[in-house]
Amino acid sequence: MTRSLPTALALALCLAAVSAATAQDARFDAQLFRPSGAPQDIVAVSQSRPLSHLSASGGLYFSFSINPLVLVTRNGDSSKKALSLVGNRLQLDAMANVGLFDWVELGVDMPLILFQGGDNLEAIGTEGLVEGYVLGDLRLTSKVALPGFRRRAEDSGWGAALTFNLGLPTGNQEAFASDGALTYTPGLIVDYRFGMGLLISANAGLWARPDRVFNGVKIGDMAPFGLAAEMPLLRTVGVTAVGAVHGAVGLTKLPGQARQIPAELLLGLRWYSSLGLTFTVGGGLGCGCSLQSPQLSFFTSVIWVPAVMSEYAAIERFKEPPRDSDGDGVNDDVDSCPDESGPESRKGCPLRDSDGDGVTDDIDACPSEVGTAARSGCPIRDNDQDGVANEDDRCPDVPAGPSGKNGCPLARIQGNKILILEPINFATDQDILLSESWPILEEVSQMLKTHPEIKRLLVEGHTDSRSSDEYNLELSRRRAASIRVYLEESGVESERLCSQGFGRSRPVADNKNEEGMALNRRVEFTVLPPPAAGEPRCPGEPAEKGPRKKGTKAAPPPAKPAPKP
């Protein structure tokens, strides 16, 4: 009895160790090459365009990989020994796809390993070779184009789609052909097709799979990636070159374990035949940076699209060279003016000059009127016909007249004012008009003669702040009266004229500097309405008791005005 207990304990511990080792070294799907079944997908990298509505494709992918699963062990003398768990593998993928509404594509891929071999698996606890003829995990695939990024087969531009693949555990896990559980892979496709037919596509996603620890290496969730290109060689015949880099980044690992990143480079040729058959053949190299990277691989495929389906017509249109109807080097699909020759910078449209003024319509602000480049293609406009262009005319609706400046007359009506272009000047501290101001007053006189509707005009005199209030008020009165007398002597009826001085009480600028004082020394002309009954004819005068005789003055001027020229 004392001998049997230790023996039983030892046996139990041994069985537990074997059981733990068996649980730990669970096997997984070693297949890196997972082809895409649509006729225009780039081998193991999908393109964004789904099959046309109710179009179907079906075909076979044959792939042969050398050393897709190699285990490297170290001896005590630090030498390495490689064990080919799967020394070579010949696999057939039977695939079928169908398009719905031009937006969705659904597919199925049934992998069948026709033959695989390798070294004796005794080192990992199984006597003999890996089983050579087994099923793989059935894959269900789907693709949905993103709104705004659905591109036709023959068109250029951006394309994008979402994908979702589901793996069912139909394969033989012991033969490294299955993960032994349900797996799924959501992903994204973004691609771009150039006008000459070159397609560049990028894939990314998440491969959710169960965690497995095999010989001290943890295999679990991975991030698959792919970057591929297809370049037409003989487009009218349907011959293209394909190339891709695809693989996956391991997202889980044990402490101290190198991250698993199986990847391979693929190159090949493709032929879109007129029989609806797409043939692809090529090979690739693995990176040698993971358990699952093959040293060499070869593939060939044939995908069939029936000629009665719209997908066949789409591929035939893709085989046609890009059209350039006007021969300007810009293909019709991106040419905004496909029937007129123009540069690429203008999207194939010509330089137009509708009005023939030498300024092209795209920068001509007035494309239907002859103009000049200096005026952005617009003509010189002169609304008031005074010889000054509107953009330079400060008074575009009023003729400048012979003495005007900058398109403005010396005097013009604006609201209830007669504005003058230049100040009226007097002798210093006097009410004597200087001759330089006579032309301005002649303009004011002429305006009153041509506007009889002006019944009363008040001539206002203003001064700066120098000197006293009494002095400035008296000086402004005399100067205003001097102008009133001048206008009367020039032929304006006296009953239409009034004058008043305001001294320095109404400044329009700061009197602290010369510029401000010059603005405050001014004369203004204000149009007044006719006086109401009982009101004085002019502001500041007593009310009149009876009508005045025509031609008489309200009051004599306080000082003799300058003689009329």
From TrEMBL:
* Signal peptide feature range: 1-23
Where it sits in the cell: the answer is: Cell outer membrane
InterPro entries xrefs: Bact_OuterMem_StrucFunc, OMP_bac, OmpA-like, OmpA-like_sf, Thrombospondin_3-like_rpt, TSP_type-3_rpt
Does the keyword field hold Signal? Answer: yes
Compositionally skewed regions (Basic and acidic residues) per UniProt: 343-355
Q: One GO CC term of this entry?
A: cell outer membrane
Compositional bias (Pro residues): 555-565
- Specify whether Cytoplasm is a keyword of the entry: no
GO molecular function terms noted in the UniProt entry:
calcium ion binding
- Point to the regions of Acidic residues compositional bias: 327-342
Region Disordered: what ranges? 319-403, 526-565
Describe the location of the OmpA-like domain by residue ranges.
Answer: 414-531
What keywords tag this UniProt record?
Cell outer membrane, Membrane, Signal
Gene Ontology biological process terms from the UniProt entry = cell adhesion
One Pfam match: OmpA
Q: What is this protein called?
A: OmpA domain protein
Q: Which organism is it from?
A: Stigmatella aurantiaca (strain DW4/3-1)
- What lineage, starting at the top, does this entry show? Bacteria, Pseudomonadati, Myxococcota, Myxococcia, Myxococcales
